[in-house]
Amino acid sequence: MTAPETIAGVVLAAGSSTRMGHNKLLLELAGETLVRRAVRAAVTARLDPVIVVLGHEAERVGAQLDGLPCLPLLNPRFGEGVRTSLQAGVTRAAESAGALVVVLADMPFVTAEMIESVVARYRESGAPLVVSHYGDDVDAPPILYDRSLFAELLAIPEDRCAKQVVRRHRGEAAVVTWPAQALRDVDIPEDYEEVRAQLSNLGPSEGPSPPAARG
Questions:
Q1: pLDDT tens track for 30-79
Q2: Are 215 and 174 in contact (CB under 8 A)?
Q3: Nearest to 141 by CA among 4, 10, 5
């Protein structure tokens, strides 16, 4: 398989933050909001286009993207679950991209360098799937899907998620390994306080992500 030149980013930023009690993507970490941090990482990694799928409080979240070269995309079905947001992003990416990288807006330790490593592994391997593997046993974004998998992502049934596509093709996947700490996300107030403390002495794009161990 020949790796395509155009690789899109799909940043999932539509959720309603029910466990946080208010919109977590508008919380500030190291001087910028959580959503802006995630989108800026995707932009810095030179994904093109960077599609930001919005839903809950779309206007407020979208306002945080001012000045970033990205494509906000409203998912009116966001209340049905993350599957619909992923599929909205895939549909838009399929218009021009030969592959896409999925990024979650609530994972503040995912950096541009991590995304770039996933893309580099794809170009080196030609694998249809590149998985970020954290610690001993967790696969999570950023995950890259070749265009050959877009139809499977769009066909995910209502009661399933993208993990079924990853499981189906895990044997063909290239892997980039990261420390377990980089998997940390922000779901509840305690998460936010702990992550904010960890990032207090770092710049807005930094995180605990040493060079990847290639799998």
A1: 889 999 999 999 999 999 999 999 999 999 999 999 999 999 999 999 99
A2: yes
A3: 10
Residue 183 identity (one-letter amino acid)? L
Which tokens go with 71?
């494509």
Q: Spell out the domains of the chain, with CATH numbers in brackets.
A: 7-214 (3.90.550.10)
CB atoms closer than 10 angstroms to residue 213: 11
Distance, CA of 132 to chain centre: 11
| pTM (two decimals) | 0.90
Beta strand pairing status for 50-54 and 32-33? Answer: unpaired
DSSP state string for 167-188: HHHGGG-EEEEE-GGGG----S
The letter for the amino acid at 107 is M
